[in-house]
Amino acid sequence: EDFGIALDKYGTVYGWGRNENGEIGSENIGEDILRPVEYAKISEKVVSINAGKDQSIFVMQNGKVLGFGNILQGEMANMEKAVKVEEMDGVLYVLTTEGEVYKYTKVLGIGTLSKLAIENVIDIEGCNEGLLIQTANKETYCLGNNTNGELSMNNKANVSTPTKVYSHGDD
């Protein structure tokens, strides 16, 4: 929120804006960064980036996840096969090379990583307070806040587990 990040073609990440929770990776927590600066704490090539609310998250070339902000500060333990990370409403979702999705939450300063009950995933996409999940079988699942029907489930119920909303061939 109120900060930006960019990834150049060499795998270097730059950040600017509000640094309230260290999301710019700068030692100057609480100070606004007024022009793009390189994230000094990143030693590996970055292949994917995501800016969430008060959180910047990076997937490294070696499959590890690194974050700066209020959810993850440093390297995510027990994750070495990541290809993409999305932040949704204070939770990190990690897609792996094996088509699995993991959920990372932090409660009272302790991070927990758990696998979602879904397989053969090829993409994930955060959308405000929801997560869309696409499988190799051309099925779309969602989870998250559905207060206004934004998850396209034909109701307004919130869902905490992947719920199928579309399958190619349902038309």
Sum this structure up briefly.
The chain has strands spanning 3-7, 13-17, 33-38, 46-52, 55-60, 65-69, 74-75, 82-88, 91-96, 101-107, 110-115, 121-127, 130-135, 139-144, 159-167. By secondary structure, it is an all-beta fold.
Description:
There is one protein chain. The chain has 171 residues and is mainly beta. 0% of the residues lie in helices and 53% in strands. The chain has strands at residues 3-7, 13-17, 33-38, 46-52, 55-60, 65-69, 74-75, 82-88, 91-96, 101-107, 110-115, 121-127, 130-135, 139-144, 159-167. The strands form 4 sheets. A 4-stranded antiparallel sheet has the order 4-5-6-7, with no helix packed on it. Strands 8-9-10-11 form a 4-stranded antiparallel sheet, with no helix packed on it. The chain has a 4-stranded antiparallel sheet with strand order 12-13-14-15, with no helix packed on it. It is globular.
Structural class: mainly beta
Mean pLDDT: 88
Strand line-up in the sheet with most strands: 4-5-6-7
Calculate Rg over CA atoms.
Answer: 16 Å
Largest sheet: 4 strands, antiparallel
Task: Give the SSE layout.
Elements: E1 3-7, E2 13-17, E3 33-38, E4 46-52, E5 55-60, E6 65-69, E7 74-75, E8 82-88, E9 91-96, E10 101-107, E11 110-115, E12 121-127, E13 130-135, E14 139-144, E15 159-167
Antiparallel strand pairs: 1-2, 2-3, 4-5, 5-6, 6-7, 8-9, 9-10, 10-11, 12-13, 13-14, 14-15
Descriptive labels:
171 residues; four-stranded antiparallel β-sheet; globular
